[in-house]
Amino acid sequence: MALINTLRQKAGKIVIVFVGFSMLAFILADLFQNNSALLGGTSNEIGEMAGATVTYEEFQDKVDDLSYTFALNTGNSPTSDDLEQIKQNAWQALLISNVFEPQFKSLGITVTNDEIVDMVQGNNIDPQIRQFFTDPNTGEFSRDRVIGFLQSLNSAPPQQRDSWLSFEAGLRPSRMFAKYENLLEKTKYATKYEGIREYRNSSSQVSADYLYVPFFSVNDSLVSAKESEFEAYLSEHQDEYQREESKDISYVTFPIQPSSEDSALVIAEIEELKEGLASAQNDSTYASINSDGLTPFSSMTAENLPESLRENGKVVSEGFISTPELVSDKYVFYKLSQIVDGNEYFLKASHILFKPSDDSNAAKADSKREARKVLRDIRNGADFGQMASIHGTDGTASRGGDLGWFGENSAFVQEFKDAAFAHRGSGLLRDVVETEFGFHIIKITEPKTNRQYKVAQIEKELFVSDRTLNDIYRNADLFAADVSSITAFNNVANERSCTVLQGRRIGRNDKRVGAIANARTIVYWLYNKASVGEVSKVFELEDQYVVAVQTGEQEEGTARLSDVRNEINRKVLDQKKADYIIKKLEGAQGAFEEIAESYGEGARAASTDLTLSSSSFPNVGYAPEAIGTAFSLEEGERTRPFKVGNGVLILEVTSKTIPEDREEYDSYKTQALAQYRSFRRREEPRTYQNVYDAIVEFAEIEDGRYKFY
Description:
Layout: H1 2-9, H2 13-28, E1 45-49, E2 52-55, H3 56-74, H4 80-106, H5 113-121, H6 127-132, H7 143-152, H8 158-185, H9 192-203, E3 205-214, H10 227-236, E4 242-243, E5 246-255, H11 260-278, H12 283-290, E6 297-300, E7 310-311, E8 314-315, E9 325-327, E10 330-354, H13 361-379, H14 384-391, E11 402-407, H15 414-422, E12 427-428, E13 433-435, E14 438-461, H16 466-481, H17 486-495, E15 501-506, H18 520-528, E16 539-540, E17 544-554, E18 557-558, H19 561-585, H20 592-599, E19 604-611, E20 616-617, E21 621-622, H21 624-632, E22 642-643, E23 647-657, H22 666-699, E24 702-703
Antiparallel strand pairs: 1-2, 1-24, 3-19, 3-23, 4-18, 5-15, 5-17, 6-14, 7-8, 9-10, 10-11, 10-14, 12-14, 13-14, 16-17, 20-21, 22-23
Helix pairs in contact: 1-8, 1-22, 2-3, 2-4, 2-8, 3-4, 9-22, 10-19
């Protein structure tokens, strides 16, 4: 069931991505050349999967194949982010072939050529083929279109045939995973003994009195622990604190940003361009030559005219040039080159829509009557926007009925446009207007106009000059040269007002380091060249230089005490609090209410009914050990004080019911199976992640990609 989802997300991700890319390529017939010139390599071993060696060359071939497919489908070479995902997909593809497919084979799971044909043009069409060959207008799948496409492949360009073969190659493992999922689905059953357990769990009951003292009632000042006790606890509970190998660093960044001198140069250039545009014979040509923007010259309506070309809400006159403004990382200014009459009229309006409750004539009459009443109120001084927010029945009500600018050829219903554009000037229309949506009160807020504005737009991006770039790099390089230890790193950073940032628990295949998203070069340095206390060279990233120092490392195995100190501190102190409470309660006699009063603040006495299927204890929380202890007692038997998750308990059973055996347990088997299925649905993501992890762990994967990338 969900195994296929998890495996597709993990091991099967390459199948889905690969198939999607390939399908897009051959459906759209986007034929592009291979552009997958990536890293060269050697035949060095890059990993091991289930005893099979994976070489660098084998891995790189898979990366090249996927990069080629990516280029076919997108028409672009992979970006650095794309390439990282491609590498991950390549690794998962090798995982499928080396780890999962042998398991499928041992289980007798195969996919024949006839099945592939059936998935493409038979009775069990693959969902992706069904999607791509479904008519978007009718929603109907066409098998004839599939067959026609396959027949055309013989005369199709090589790239298109390659893309189809890549897609077909992905169908086989995808079907194998589906069969494996179905195989696991058949394992859902409940045995007689599970039925017996369900019967006993639901029918066994205990009534008990108890005394509970929570740990938080004991002041922390009453207990303390030594460093040696923390170390001893970690040593005794190593299995609970296993960690993957990781590294820690401190780093400082030197952002690559334009200097004030760089900005001054751009501003000076902008002023020159402004003067040149003022006297240019052809504004369009001048802007096209001198602007860094994509739209140096365009025709605009009043609706999309920049605010820079308005003064006091009115459009400026021809020839006006706006003041340059800094927008994001570029300076921009406009010139209103020409005002002309266009072929289409535009206006700006607001409305209030009254929708009839149904299609009956009576409902329409009521709606129209209400609209006319509100129209009279507005004519008598009521605020239009306020009336729209009160009476409006469409999405414009929240903005006072504002519709913005729209043209004669817009998608508005014709009756609405006819009425609006027939009105002269601005203001309210005399009567309400009926359309298929209801009755509208319409207010023209800007009168109709066919004016169009020819606008020249010059943008100049801020840039980092070579001099500035050299200065920033020199600062980073001097910083790296002046530090040779963790202490020196922090001291020099403080002296030079550099913020020291942290990167914690960096894995060998991570891309992110602290706040830096694309930091593979730093990770490569950490795992191939660095050691604790070593300072890096200057890393040149997209928009910053970085200098780092390795501050720590976690070997694969038991966690460092410094990383789990808070958690262990709490557990050690809780144990000491438990000892403190137990010692104080030891030997206490009498009713629990009396013991609670004698103990003092924090102790609570109460009674409860329990079933064997319970896992939480009233007022205590999750405490399955307390449930088990209660059912192990005889009536009238009392425990000594014992520790549970959040405190100390004393139990005394007042009554106990254990059901007699039955001849049959079919109904309880059904209940057990229903609970199991419910648990599976609720826990599938975690359960199948555990299945995936177990398969990978059994295969003893050794991932050495970090040595090469």
